[in-house]
């Protein structure tokens, strides 16, 4: 609770927080702001690249069970990204200023 109060106090003096503070604000405040959504898309892209590399390695190995397992992981991560995108299209992206108002 004390960290939440410190965060609220640090944003009362600024109208628009710095970019790195917007990531932290997007994680704690209600809604998702654009910088947080951008970071999430980058993380999902990195996950997809790692899983694609693992799938490539598994397909050229002798174990089809491993290839199937990695393929299921690729499907799950793709489904997660699609569902997150759908959810945000329904709820919308909140600006950092609106998140600061919600915290006060």
UniProtKB/TrEMBL annotation:
Keywords linked to the UniProt accession: Membrane, Transmembrane, Transmembrane helix
Keyword Membrane included in the entry's annotation: yes
TM segment ranges: 42-60, 66-88
Protein name, UniProt field: Uncharacterized protein
Organism: Taxus chinensis
